[in-house]
Amino acid sequence: MQRIRGYYADHPLAADLTLLAIVTIAAAILRLIMLGELPYGVHPDEAQLATDGRKILDGELWTVYTRAVLGQPAGHAYLTLPSFLLFGWTPFAMRLPLALVGLAAVPLLYVFVRQAYGRTEAFLAATLLAFSYWHLLYSRVAHWSISYGTITLAVLICILRGMNTREGDRYHGRRWFIAAGFFLGLGTYTYNLYPVAVVAIAVFLAITTLTTYRRGDDFRWWRGSLLTTAAVAVVVFAPMLTQLLDRDSAYWWHVENYSEVGVWRTEEFKDEDALGKADLIARQVETFAGAYAWDASEDIVDGNGVRPMFDPATVILLLIGVGFAIRQRRNPVALAALCCVIIIPLPAVLQQGSIMRQPVAAAPFAMLIAALPLAAMWRTARRAWHERRDVAVISGAAVVVMVAIISATTVYDYFWTWRKADWPRFIYHEEVRTSAEYMDTLPDGAYVLLYSWRAPINQEIYRFLAPDVEGEDRSADFSDRNRVVTIDDPTRPTVFVLMDDYVDMLPAIEAAHPNATVRTIKHNGRMHLIAIEVPAQTP
Question: Can you give 466-502 as a three-state secondary structure string?
Answer without folding.
Answer: CCCCEEEECCCCCCCCCCCCCCCCCCCCEEEEECHHH
